[in-house]
Amino acid sequence: MTSGDWAVLVEENGKTYVVELVDQQVKIKGLGVFNPQQKLADVTVDERVEIGQKELKRVAPRLPELSRGMVRRAQTIGSKDAGFFIAKLGLGPGDSVLEAGIGSGGLSMYIQRVLGTNGTHVTVEPRGEHSEVALENLQRAAACWEETPNHHHIEGTIEASIEAIKTVSDGFHAIVLDLPEHPSAIQATAELLLPGGRLACYCPVSSQMERAWEACEAAELSVEWAGELMEREWGRASKGGMRPVNGPFGHTAFLLVAQR
Ligand SMILES: C[S@@+](CC[C@H](N)C(=O)[O-])C[C@H]1O[C@@H](n2cnc3c(N)ncnc32)[C@H](O)[C@@H]1O
After folding, report:
1. Are residues 75 and 34 in the same domain?
2. CATH number for the domain that contains residue 193
């Protein structure tokens, strides 16, 4: 597929739609029924188009847009934590990365954006209804971006997939675990880390982080960083000046990074 096969459309309020340019009537949630090929093929990036009652702008299919318009099922990792993982794990072109579970593929899109065509990304997920959504998001990314890594998806739990993973890659520069039970996953995968490689855990509650820390030590990985990131957005105040925007000051997860 080429990048011309998908269009990303944004409403004034930021709502984003990722639409496959098929030549038939389809129903797109939020936009209604229309023929995407006929309606959008001649609309260039930055041009506006009316669909039903809505006015939308076609935008370039970059990571923030594909991420905002992604199909969702399981809870996803967003830019705050994904960016930190990429930096702390030192991910770059040519790296091999193991990720479980894939969930909706939220984090997977960030990982695939930096690995280049020589990178290897192995994802593992036991729930078919989750991987179906994630693979759709990754298919869109592969169609829209010039460079994406070799991707292998394995159906199953990470603990039961070690032999299958080894057939794809001898070792990994990084492993990322976003699943409910970190200790058994850490125990099973620590041996797959290349020397100097790092393992990261995404832990919604602190007890998970504590158990992940203990499991890393038991697997002879040294914990390099554990904690959480706080993000505070600012905006223009109505009477002038700038101030933190109103709204909840939320929690996503505790993060832990350990090194072999
Ligand atoms: C919160 S979701 C991951 C979300 C993902 N990081 C994203 O950004 O879209 C957690 C996933 O872990 C999967 N999972 C649970 N236990 C697992 C295991 N033992 N091995 C692999 N995946 C597992 C679940 O099925 C679920 O899809």
Report:
1. no
2. 3.40.50.150
| Distance from residue 32's CA to the centre of ligand 1 (Å) | 32
130/83 same-domain check: yes
Q: Provide the pLDDT confidence category of residue 249 given band limits of 50, 70 and 90.
A: confident
4 falls in which pLDDT band (50, 70, 90)? Answer: low
- Mutation test residue for ligand 1: of 107, 162, 178, 252, the one with most atoms within 8 Å of CB: 178
Sheet containing 16-20, strands listed edge to edge, beginning at the edge strand earlier in sequence:
16-20, 6-11, 54-59, 48-51
Count up the domains in the chain and report the number: 2
Q: What is the number of H-type helices and E-type strands within the chain?
A: 8, 15
What residues make up the domain containing 72?
68-259
- What pLDDT is attached to residue 160? 98
Residue reference for tokens 């036991």: 126
- Residue 57 in contact with ligand 1 by CB distance below 6 A: no
